[in-house]
Design brief:
The chain has 8 helices and 8 strands; from the N terminus they run βαβαβαβααββααβαβ. It is α/β, with parallel strands linked by helices.
Length: 211
Amino acid sequence: MDRWKGRVALVTGASVGIGATIAKELVRYGMTVVGCARSLDKIQALAAECKSAGHSGVLIPMKCDLTNAEDIQSMFAAIKAQHKGVDVCINNAGLAHPESLLSGKTSAWKNMLDVRTHCGSEILMRHCFEAFRDNHNCVVLFSLQSISPGLVETEFAYRLHSKTPGKAKETYSQLKPLEAIDVANAVVYVLSAPPHVQIGEMLLRPVEQQA
């Protein structure tokens, strides 16, 4: 990870769960991490935690709603002005609503898709590619990796089943799930690969998970 020290990483959904853990690990390895989310309180607390722990990198909280194209554009403009671009983009943000595909509310599905595909991912990645192109010090240009974890114990299920917390607890009690640090370690593994090696896809599953 030495070649990434001082370089800039953008981590979306960095306020809790997998995103927060990835951001913390990259800071520990000396990266300048821009952590974005709709709310800054938890990222600010995490930034203070990283600083007090003496990590060699720094976590910079930035507010951004990934369903809002103007928010994404403003965020990248700020990153370019303050840090001259992005070297690594971890597109982690996501959410879910307890709505079935056939009978669920269209607005809920639109919100989920806006974050993960239509607005969040498409516009975010376009700006990332522009940042990579403009950043002449970038080590790896246009290198894409996909890390697909199975069941990970985070706040995700508790938010999804906020009205029925017992159901969320049951989700994680049926087997030994992955932990956020497992996914963060996978990110570090990908970044630690030699420059001539590209890891295109990584699938992580708890041993007991059947599907």
